Amino acid sequence: MNGWMKQDYDLQYYGGFRSSWKLLRSQLVLVPVPHPTVMYLHAFVCSLWLAPPLLPLPPGLYPRLYPELSDFMGLNLTEDALRQALSPLPAADCSGQVATRPSALSCMTAPVTGNDCGLRRAEIKQGVRELILCKDMDGKIGLRLKSVDNGVFVQLVQANTAAALAGLRFGDQVLQINGENCAGWSTDKAHKALKSASAERIALVVRDRPFERTITLHKDTSGQLGFIFKKGKVTFIVKDSSAARNGLLTEHHICEVNGQNVIGLKDPQISDILNTSGNVVTITIMPAIIFEHMMKKMSSSIVKSLMDHSIPEV
Questions:
Q1: In this predicted model, what pLDDT tens digit does every residue of 88-113 receive, in sequence order?
Q2: Which end of the chain is more exposed for a tag (fewer CB within 10 A), N or C?
Q3: CB-based contacts of 283, cutoff 8 Å, min separation 6
Q4: pTM of the model
C-alpha cells in the first residue's frame, strides 16, 4: 500500500464524513500508477467526500455571462426605476371638470377636408394612369422630359398644348411610351421616342409626381403661414407656426400652391398667390436636390414663359 494511504487524517472537523471516508478507503483497490495521477485521484476523492457545504460566491468573482439591460440597447432599468415605473399613480380628482378640445386656430394645424378645392387640385394620386396624346400642326405635344435615377420625368409642360390638356404636371414619371418601358432611358432617347411616334396617337403610362408631397397649412390671425422662401425654396420655418406643426421642411422647393404650378415665377408673384388664397393653403413641395437636378441646363426664361401656370380644373 502506498504511503499516502497510511497517513492518519484528522477528520474530526468534518463530523459525519469520517465513517464514509473509512468505508471508501476499505473498498479502494489500489494499483501502481504514476505519482501525478495518484495526487489527482486524491484531490478528486477529497473534493467529493470532504468538501464543506457550498457557500454563496462573493460578488464579482466571475464575470457576467449575459449583459444587463444597461448594457443592451442603452436601457437603464435599475430596481429603483422599475419600482417607480410600476407604482400606481394617485387618482386625480375629476369632479366638476369638463374636457375641452383645442381649436384648430390655437394649434395652427390645418383641418383636412375633401371639400377644399385647393386640396383636391393638389392631390397626388396613387397608382398609374394611361394618357393618349396627339401632336399639333407643328408636330409638338408641349412636353419636355428629364432622366433622373434611371427614370424619365416631366420637366416642362407648355400651356394650351396636348400635354397640358391631358393633365400632365411637372414631376410626373413616364413609365411607358407606346408600350415601351422607359426605365434606364436617357433624356435624348425619351425625346427621340416622342418625336418618332405617330402624330395621331401617343400612349403614355404615367405615375403621379412620385418625388413630391403636399402639405396643407392654416393661416394665423395675421395671415401668415409660418415659413420664408427664397427663389421658390423654403429657407426658414417659424417656431410653433402652422408650417412647423404640419411638417414643412427647409431645402424644399415650392412646386404648386393649391394645385397651381408656380415654378419659374418670381418670389413676389408666389407671395401674391399665397396671400390671395383662403385661410387653408395646400402647397406641393419637392426636395431641393432633386428639383435642381431636374431643372439643370434649362433657362429660367423658358420656364417662366412656357411653363403652364394655369389653375387646374377639378
A1: 555 555 454 444 444 444 444 555 55
A2: N
A3: 122, 214, 215, 217, 248, 254, 256, 257, 258
A4: 0.64
